[in-house]
Design a protein that fits this description.
Length: 624
C-alpha cells in the first residue's frame, strides 16, 4: 500500500511555496536517503531531494504551480503524485512505500485537506482563474482584499472624493479593525513593499489581473517574517514563463449606451462612460536554438502591458446663487439680509426689500461672486447640475525573467513600470473650478531575488527591491492669474505655482477656486534589502533573517499656497436675533470674509527613515 497525505500549511515563503514530507515503509518506520524528485509542470525542471535520518524532506522555495512528485528507493516501489503549490504555503506530502521493484510505479490520487490543522494563520488564496474571472471594479486587483473575512473598505470610490494617491485605484482596507492605511496593512508584490510614503492610501503599481498568478491575503497571526504591518498582509505573485510559449490578447470594453440613466443626472446631461482596457501577455523560454538554452530549461521570461483609457461623465449637483441674487436681490431667499454698517449695539438694520444696493458692492467681491454660473435647475438649493468628463489615460508594463544557473542556484529579475494621467473635469465651469485638477503619476518597481542551495537542507534567499512613486498635482487654473484679475492681492505673485484662484468657501453654496493642496510634487523612493536563511534539521524547519528598508519621501506641497477665504454670512446677519438671517454670498458681494489664511511654499521637504527588522521562526513537525 502506498499512501500520500497532503496538508496545506501557511508559511512565510513570501511569493513562493514549499513541499515537505516524510517517507516511511509499510510498518511506519522512517526511510532514510530515499530519492525525491520535484518536477515543475511549467518549466520541466527537476529538483532532486533526499530524505534525512528521520525520513523527512523539504524542497527549496517553489513558484506557485503544479508539480510532479516522485519518491523511490531500492527495494520499494516508486510512488508518484501531482501536487499543487500555492503562494505563501507549504504542502506536506507523506509517502508510505510498498516493498517491490523500483520499476514498478503506483499513481496516487491526492486530496488536499480543507482544514489547516498545523497553523494558526488565517487567510485565503485567489488562484489565477479566480483573479481573472471575479468581477472587479475597473479590474483593480486590490478589491480582492475586500473578499477576505474581516476586511472592510474605508475609502469612497467617487472620483472627486479621492486623494491624489488613490486616484488610480482604491487599495486600502481596514482588516480586523486595524487602521485602514497601507502602513498598517502591508501590500507586497513578490515580497517587495508596494506602498507609498505620503499618506498610506495608495499603492505604487497595479499589475493587470491578466499578469497575476496568485493572490493571497493573511488576516491574522502572520508568520514572523512578515513585520511592519499590524493588520492584513497581502501578497501577489506575477506569472512566469515556462518551457512552452503562452500568450494572450485582450480588451475589456464598457459603454454608457448600455447603461441606465444616472439617478442624479438630467436627460440632457452628458452620460458618457467609456472604458477600454486592452493589452497582451506573453511568456516562454529564452532560447537561441543550439546557441543557448536548446533544452528550454535555463531561462524563462514573461511580459505584459495593459493600456487603460476611460472617459466618464461625473454628475455633480451644486447650489449656486440665482440671477436675482447675482444682482443683490435676496427677496426670494428665506434668510433676511442685514447691513453690516448699521450695527447699533447688538442689532443691525435689514437692507430695504432684502436688496443690497449696487453702490454697496465690493468690486472684487462682486466679480468673484459672478464666477458662479447661473442655475440650470429650478429652486434655491441643488439648482445646478454639471457632468464634467473625467479623463483617465494610463499604462503599465511588467517584465519578469527567471534564470536557473544550476539545480542549486536560481535568480528572478522583475521590472514593473507605468504612467497615468488623470484629469477630473471641473465641478463648475472654469475659472470657478472647485476640483483637484490634473494628476500625473509615473511609477516603477524593480526587484531581484537570488536563491542558493548551500546544502540539501540549507538555502539562502536574497531579495532587493526599488520602488518609486512620483505624484504630480496641478491646479485647474494653472498659468492663469485669476486672483490678480479679480483684484485679490498677494496671491498671484508672478510664478507658475501661485497662479489660479484661492479656495473660497461660501456657506450654503458650492465652494469656488482651485484645490488648495495643488500644485504638489510628492515623491516616494523605497529601497528594500532582505536576506532569509532556511535550514532543515530533522523535523525542524528553521528560518531566520533580516530586512532593511530605506524610505525617502520628498514633498513639495502646502495646504493653502493661494490662500483660503471663508464667507459665512456673519456680516449680513442680525446678531441680536441671528436665526433666519445672513447669507454667505451676500458677504462675498460685500467683500467681507469671516476668516482666511495663506501658506507660503518655500521649497521641498525631505523626509528620510531607515527601518530594521529581524526574525527567527522554528516550525516543528512533532509527528506525521
Amino acid at each position: 500500500m502506498i499512501a500520500l497525505v497532503l496538508v496545506s500549511l501557511s508559511l512565510a515563503q513570501i511569493e513562493t511555496g514549499t513541499i515537505v514530507g516524510t517517507v516511511t515503509d509499510p510498518s511506519g518506520a522512517a526511510i532514510a536517503k530515499a530519492k525525491i524528485v520535484v518536477n515543475s509542470a511549467r518549466t520541466g525542471r527537476e529538483t532532486p531531494l533526499e530524505t534525512n535520518g528521520e525520513g523527512f524532506f523539504q524542497s527549496p522555495p517553489l513558484a506557485p504551480g503544479d508539480y510532479r512528485l516522485t519518491a523511490e528507493l531500492a527495494g520499494f516501489k516508486r510512488a508518484a503524485a501531482n501536487v499543487r503549490v500555492e503562494v505563501n504555503q507549504r504542502v506536506a506530502a507523506d509517502f508510505k512505500l510498498e516493498v517491490g521493484e523500483v520499476s514498478q510505479q503506483v499513481e496516487v490520487s491526492a486530496t488536499t485537506q480543507g482544514l489547516e490543522t498545523e497553523t494558526s494563520t488565517l487567510g485565503n488564496v485567489r488562484s489565477e482563474k479566480a483573479v481573472a474571472e471575479l468581477p472587479l471594479n475597473a479590474r483593480n486587483y486590490a478589491f480582492l482584499i475586500g473578499l477576505a473575512p474581516g476586511a472592510v473598505q474605508t475609502q469612497d470610490r467617487a472620483p472627486g472624493a479621492l486623494p491624489g494617491t488613490s486616484r488610480r485605484g482604491v487599495s486600502n482596507f481596514a482588516v480586523n479593525g486595524v487602521r485602514g492605511t497601507n502602513d498598517w496593512n502591508g501590500i507586497l508584490v513578490e515580497g517587495v513593499d508596494n506602498t507609498e510614503n505620503h499618506n498610506g492610501l495608495g499603492s505604487v503599481i497595479f499589475p493587470p489581473v491578466d499578469a497575476i498568478q496568485e493572490f493571497r491575503i493573511q488576516t491574522s497571526s502572520a508568520d514572523a517574517q512578515f513585520g511592519r504591518a499590524a493588520g492584513g498582509i497581502t501578497n501577489l505573485v506575477l506569472k512566469s514563463g515556462g518551457k512552452d510559449f503562452h500568450g494572450s490578447l485582450y480588451e475589456f470594453h464598457r459603454n454608457f449606451k448600455f447603461d441606465a440613466l444616472n439617478y442624479f443626472a438630467r436627460a440632457s446631461d452628458d452620460q458618457k462612460f467609456i472604458l477600454n482596457q486592452f493589452g497582451f501577455t506573453l511568456g516562454g523560454p529564452v532560447s537561441l536554438g543550439k546557441l543557448y538554452n536548446k533544452a528550454r530549461e535555463k531561462t524563462f521570461f514573461f511580459a505584459s502591458t495593459q493600456w487603460d483609457k476611460r472617459r466618464q461623465a461625473v454628475p455633480n449637483v451644486s447650489t449656486v446663487p440665482t440671477a436675482r441674487m447675482r444682482n443683490g436681490d435676496y427677496g426670494e431667499s428665506p434668510n433676511r439680509v442685514f447691513d453690516p454698517l448699521s450695527l447699533t449695539g447688538n442689532a443691525r438694520t435689514q437692507f430695504p426689500g432684502n436688496i443690497i444696493p449696487a453702490s454697496r458692492f465690493n468690486s472684487t467681491g462682486k466679480r468673484t461672486a459672478d464666477l458662479y454660473p447661473l442655475p440650470n435647475s429650478a429652486g434655491l438649493v441643488n439648482n445646478y447640475t454639471g457632468a464634467p468628463v473625467r479623463l483617465y489615460d494610463g499604462y503599465q508594463t511588467d517584465l519578469k525573467v527567471d534564470h536557473y544557473f544550476s539545480t542549486a542556484h536560481s535568480a528572478v529579475f522583475r521590472a514593473s513600470f507605468g504612467d497615468t494621467t488623470i484629469n477630473d473635469g471641473p465641478v463648475l465651469p472654469l475659472p470657478a473650478a472647485a476640483n483637484i485638477g490634473a494628476t500625473q503619476q509615473p511609477v516603477g518597481q524593480y526587484a531581484i531575488i537570488d536563491r542558493v542551495n548551500l546544502a540539501p537542507n540549507k538555502l539562502n534567499e536574497f531579495r532587493f527591491g526599488v520602488t518609486r512613486f512620483n505624484l504630480r498635482l496641478v491646479q485647474p487654473n494653472v498659468g492663469l492669474n485669476i486672483a490678480r484679475d479679480l483684484g485679490i492681492p498677494g496671491v498671484n505673485t508672478g510664478d507658475q505655482l501661485t497662479t489660479g484662484l484661492p479656495r473660497i468657501s461660501v456657506t450654503g453654496y458650492q465652494v469656488l477656486g482651485d484645490d488648495p493642496f495643488n500644485p504638489g510634487v510628492l515623491v516616494t523612493n523605497n529601497f528594500q534589502t532582505e536576506d532569509n536563511f532556511f535550514w532543515t534539521v530533522n523535523r525542524h524547519s528553521i528560518r531566520f533573517g533580516g530586512r532593511v528598508d530605506r524610505r525617502q519621501y520628498n514633498a513639495f506641497q502646502t495646504s493653502a499656497v493661494r490662500g483660503l477665504m471663508n464667507f459665512s454670512g456673519a456680516y449680513t446677519n442680525n446678531p441680536a436675533a441671528a436665526a433666519g438671517t445672513g447669507n454667505g454670498n451676500a458677504d462675498l458681494q460685500l467683500g467681507a470674509p469671516i476668516s482666511g489664511n495663506i501658506s507660503i511654499l518655500e521649497g521641498t521637504r525631505g523626509f528620510r527613515r531607515t527601518e530594521l527588522g529581524f526574525y527567527f521562526q522554528d516550525d516543528w513537525k512533532v509527528n506525521q
